[in-house]
Design a protein that fits this description.
Elements: H1 2-19, E1 22-28, E2 34-41, E3 44-52, E4 58-65, E5 68-76, E6 82-89, E7 92-100, E8 106-113, E9 116-125, E10 128-136, E11 139-144, H2 147-153
Antiparallel strand pairs: 1-2, 2-3, 3-4, 4-5, 5-6, 6-7, 7-8, 8-9, 9-10, 10-11
């Protein structure tokens, strides 16, 4: 009886594992440079992934869950400098996103929700705050050009 029960358990375990296959995937450009790499679970992107430009430089990197971007992602320019970075939730941008200039400095950062500005956007020039705006569902509702008036009208806790 034990052998029979063990055989059934082993058969069910093998059947289940064949339905949930996690494998490491790599895809290449025609020039043999790597295009993308990461984990697939049941043919859907999952866990950590990297994507590359045709020249081999990193284009973007981050996590997937059920074929949708999730958690924190980094994006790069063709020359490997940072382009932007931010949060995804079920494939949509949300929370704070940082955007970089050609020198690698943050030129603006914005709060996003459902892929659109929703909250504050802070604009920088040479690492100094020069302007702040507030958005609701992608539409600008207020703008400040000096930090003192911004502080008077807003709680700095909202910038977290």
């Amino acid at each position: 009886m034990f052998k029979y029960t063990f055989f059934i358990f082993f058969f069910l375990l093998m059947s289940f594992s064949s339905f949930c296959q996690k494998e490491y995937h790599k895809e290449y450009y025609k020039n043999k440079q790597i295009k993308e790499e990461g984990w697939l679970l049941d043919a859907k992107k999952t866990a950590f992934w990297k994507f590359y430009y045709k020249n081999g430089n990193l284009k973007k990197e981050g996590h997937f869950s059920d074929n949708l971007e999730t958690n924190y992602w980094y994006f790069y320019n063709n020359d490997s400098s940072k382009k932007k970075e931010g949060h995804f939730k079920k494939g949509t941008k949300y929370n704070w996103w940082l955007f970089y200039d050609d020198k690698g400095f943050i030129n603006h950062k914005c709060q996003l929700k459902n892929n659109q500005k929703n909250g504050y956007c802070l604009i920088y020039k040479e690492e100094k705050l020069i302007k702040a705006s507030k958005y609701k569902k992608g539409k600008k509702i207020k703008e400040w050009t000096d930090f003192s008036s911004f502080r008077v009208e807003n709680s700095l806790n909202d910038l977290r």
